[in-house]
Design brief:
- The protein has about 325 residues and is an all-alpha fold.
- It folds into two domains: about 1-155, no CATH class; about 160-325, no CATH class.
- Helix content is about 65%, strand content about 0%.
- It is built from eleven helices and no strands.
- The protein has helices spanning about 5-30, 50-60, 70-100, 105-125, 130-150, 160-165, 170-190, 215, 235-260, 270-290, 295-320.
- Helix 3 (about 70-100) runs antiparallel to helix 4 (about 105-125).
Length: about 325
């Protein structure tokens, strides 16, 4: 595999996008999403203020945002890696022009990354509005999926994937369930509802605690306030958290059913990987609660969720390869 090829650059893009998502999760979960109050600079600097004089200038420019280096570093590192992902997408588009293939997909990828830059700006300017931050996460997952699909299009699959092809409807339904669960996880995180229930199987010591679903799932919250640490009531956060738990149970049960329906000699490697990732995700989710949301576990929970999403993308892609479904 030549290095300067669509195949090599696309798989590199998958890994780099994964790193960007990890850094984004770290930034969000470390409460550093507003580590820099402006965009694309940081306190008016190309990099960020480091000396005492620069910090004094920064705090005069942004008196309501005192400089916190431990919050700035995650935010700036995330921005640098996200920018490098954009450069990689540009290089991939140039290579696709040279190889005369996948021009539409690589062009769309670059468009999505440009939109991600806009969402990055809106995340800061709208002060971590939950809907914007959630949309930004989904954009990152779409970016990763596009890099992966471009790579998959360069691979010659020769197995018999009749089981996948004949169960595309069930596979698509599972994908919808998974996307819904990912949304619930993102909504839990962006509204700071992860700590609403720190006991299992109860929540705040009750099996059926007081909840407020109307407030909890108000997607269009007011623009303007600073949403760092959120503004929802305890009852709203409990509603979000419990819905995420129920969603996890639904996805888990349906995934087991799906694995049984899809099991065959050729699909076994994909399904074993999928189920391994699924069980790891369940473990991390439970450990999030029992360990009171340690940062490493919360970041890992985000990343394994992305792996689950990508494994489903692979199976859906293969299910569409009619030339490989056999007779």
């Amino acid at each position: 595999m030549r290095f300067f090829s669509v195949k090599s650059f696309s798989i590199l893009g998958v890994f780099l996008a994964f790193v960007v998502i990890a850094l984004g999760a770290w930034t969000r979960l470390a409460d550093a999403g507003l580590g820099c109050p402006d965009w694309p600079g940081c306190y008016g600097f190309v990099t960020f203020p480091t000396t005492a004089d620069e910090i004094a200038i920064a705090e005069r420019l942004y008196p309501d945002s005192p400089v916190e280096i431990d919050k700035i570093i995650p935010e700036v590192v995330h921005r640098y890696f996200a920018a490098s992902l954009g450069l990689l997408a540009i290089a991939l588009l140039i290579i696709s022009f040279r190889e005369k293939k996948l021009l539409l997909t690589t062009s769309f990828l670059l468009f999505v990354i440009i939109c991600q830059g806009i969402f990055g700006y809106l995340t800061v300017s709208l002060k971590l509005h939950p809907l914007i931050v959630t949309g930004h996460l989904f954009g990152a997952m779409l970016t990763t999926a596009l890099f992966l699909i471009i790579f998959l299009k360069t691979v010659d699959f020769k197995g018999n994937y009749k089981k996948l092809h004949n169960n595309k409807g069930l596979l698509s339904l599972g994908f919808i369930f998974l996307l819904g669960q990912i949304f619930l996880g993102a909504w839990t995180s962006t509204n700071y509802a992860a700590r609403a229930c720190l006991d299992l199987p109860y929540c705040q010591g009750e099996l059926l605690p007081e909840v407020n679903f109307a407030e909890g799932f108000n997607l269009f919250q007011t623009f303007g306030p600073n949403y760092l640490f959120g503004h929802m009531s305890n009852e709203a956060r409990v509603a979000i958290h419990l819905t995420h738990r129920i969603g996890a149970i639904v996805v888990f049960i349906y995934s087991l059913f799906l694995a049984i329906r899809l099991w065959s000699t050729d699909t076994k490697p994909f399904l074993i990987a999928f189920l391994t990732i699924l069980f790891l995700q369940i473990f991390l989710g439970v450990n999030n609660v029992l360990s009171h949301l340690p940062l490493w576990n919360a970041v890992a929970h985000n990343l394994v969720g992305v792996m689950l999403f990508l494994s489903m993308v692979v199976m859906i892609y293969i299910s569409s390869l009619k030339k490989n479904v056999g007779t």
